[in-house]
Hints:
The chain is of the alpha/beta class and 198 residues long. It contains one helix and 19 strands. A hairpin with a 4-residue loop joins strand 18 (182-185) and strand 19.
Amino acid sequence: MSGPLAHVRAAYEAVRRRTTEAILAHRIRAKHPTLSCHPSAIWNYPYREIDAIEIGRDVHVFAGVEIIVFPMTRNSSVRGGLVLGDGAVISTGVNIRAAGGVVRVGAGTAISQHTVVIAANHRAVLGQPYLHSPWDETRTGVTVGANVWVGANCVLLPGVTIGDNALIAAGSVVTRDVPPNEIWGGVPARKLKDVPAL
């Protein structure tokens, strides 16, 4: 279809999408009055499933963040959800995909610019379209402990736990668990050294 009707339909869809995003973001801010959230942050979740999102006190969500939380999905029987601990910081351009598993970010933890946190991934089955395959239910969710610093442009893959006080170097891809009090970096991430004591 082309012509004026197509333009009207496209304009209507754009307005409807922006309105829906604004309503969902407003509900999050209203439920969590100590949350500092940039207006450009996108919160995508089912309207009736706001309780799948738990946010502590004094959490900061910066510009251009996209947070997707779907407790139920046809791709997985594993429940999705999001927990942000007190004082957590989600920096500019971070993408959190909390479907098919729970993403937990501990108190005082910073997820730096343009990092991607993925709770579930598609299974790769030869002969099937990867994009439409069911999600792998053997590795789900991401847990980031308290007082963790995840550097810019990192990727945290499903099934990973990062221990308290760990540091993840910028540009790292975390594919396995990181013990507490260690500095990890690289692709895939590996231990670089211990966090120095005072």
